[in-house]
Amino acid sequence: MFILLLVCIQVGFYINIPFDYFSGNLLPELTGMLIELCIILFIVDRWQEQNRIQLLIVKEKRLREYLIFFLRHGFKNLPRKYRVGNFYGEEHHDNIEYLDNLFDFIKENGLATQEIDAIRSQCDIDLNTFGNLLPVASELTDGHFKAWSRIVYFMVRISKGLGDDEESIKYIITNIKRYECASHASGIYVGSKNV
Q1: What distance in Å separates the CA atoms of residue 47 and residue 112, rounded to the nearest whole number?
Q2: For a pLDDT cut of 70, what percent of the chain falls above it?
Q3: Looking at the record's lineage, which domain of life comes first (predicted)?
Q4: Which of 53, 110, 163, 191 could cross-link 90 (Cys pair, CB 3.0–4.6 Å)?
């Protein structure tokens, strides 16, 4: 569009004397219309981009709410300081610190049968919902989709009793951290400065 505008101006100056270009000629009118069209297209494009980002933020918020629910109910038998707080997107550093502390606690102390049973029970309850939300995660970024699909994979492993549950739980925590980092890196979360 911009190139077409430059071509019209160049042709107008080449064909006419520059003074004659602006008097008794339709080419300046067309040039003005092209400039207005470029401005309108730029404004509409920015508006559409803002709407697209807002929609992505809404989708990220929905996925995050399920992660919060899973963390609150699956890990409710852990000591109080290892239970999730807010876990909102704008509290990125607190979220990473929480996930690191939780991971380190499990790595150092292991999990009791009661704690593993609570997480397995929550995986059984949430598995279908998390699986059904894969298309939503795929609409965000590749990082979100990879993290979400791996969370679903390890929930299936826990739910079906395939492999070491404690290792699968650590992988879930690692992938929740990956999801958190993908949200922060892309600026797709409630309270982001990108909006």
Answers
A1: 52
A2: 83
A3: Bacteria
A4: 191
